Amino acid sequence: MVPRVAESRFLSVAGTSGLLAIGLLLPGATAQTGAEPGGASAAAPAAHAAPVAPLPSTSPRRPVATYSIVARDPDTGEMGVAVQSHWFSVGPTVPWAEAGVGAVATQSFVKVSYGPDGLAAMRDGTSAPDALAELVEADDNANVRQVAMIDSQGRVAAHTGTRCIQSAGHSVGVNFSVQANLMQRDTVWPAMAKAFETTKGALADRMLAALVAAEKEGGDIRGRQSAAIVIVAGTPTGNVWDDRVIDLRVEDHPDPLGELARLVRLQRAYKEMNAGDVSIEKNDFDEALAHYNAALELAPEVYEIAFWVGVNLAHAGRVDEALPLLAKAYQSEPRLRELIGRLPAVELLPQDDELIKTLQFAQVEVGGGVWTSGEDRKAKKP
To answer: How confident is the model at residue 107 (pLDDT cuts 50, 70, 90)?
Structure first.
């Protein structure tokens, strides 16, 4: 059971909010109970004597102690949440996001409904700061919650309850908030903020950098177990499946962040493959090959990528380029030779028995293998 302190909560926001009587902070400002402003972070103060009451039965009796980031890319409009925890399968609980609406991270003694309720409020036009303020005000156990929200305009809010287990706090900045509880030390969330602000590249890369920075500062005092990242489009397409740019989870792993980064890389590779297939449908083979080469660059270890690139090269009459890729794929899965024989029936290869035999019996030359760089493939180096 976890005690609560009546009205002992605080909330930090970045952006415009007309409802916050608790406190309004611009990016880089400070909210800290019992302390003067003096930094870019808000930390939960030590618990003090007060009447206590049990948590409602709808709350977990153990905290989903974690560090997370909610963020938005102002250039693309993409928004998302990335999280790591020493708790099994953190992905279904903490991160929530909807294209064109916003993103929510709900953690500590989790009240999962902050996710869908926060998105619903933002979908109806309420800013992230106002949405969070309303939900916190209505929550009798807000002092054990840690929640952050960002909306499609980049307005950010974060709340760390005073009964979150130390070290706990958050940092709110321009287009992001980082938050953590039950950390090894209170340097975790400032390090996350710095990493996000200084890392270049796509939103996913910057968010992952923030998680890595947290781990370098000691991370969760209990260790590490699961991780997740969800990124949605800035503008909804009308197809929910297209709105989710990234939706990946690591349920249980000794190195969840390393595994999550690997999955992000693989997703990018497969997206390049899909883009290449679309280019094939448009009869633009040069564009398709550029996508396929990018996929091979991103994931040279995935033999099926090499296989289908080889198939498409062979179908386009570029058999000499196809053979090394097919041979390398056969080394990992010999049954792919049989699959080659089935493809003419569905017009993925020509009805040419001699060609099919050539493709089926492709061999890796001594010292050869799949070309793992685009320049090597152009030069036909093994």
So the answer is: very high
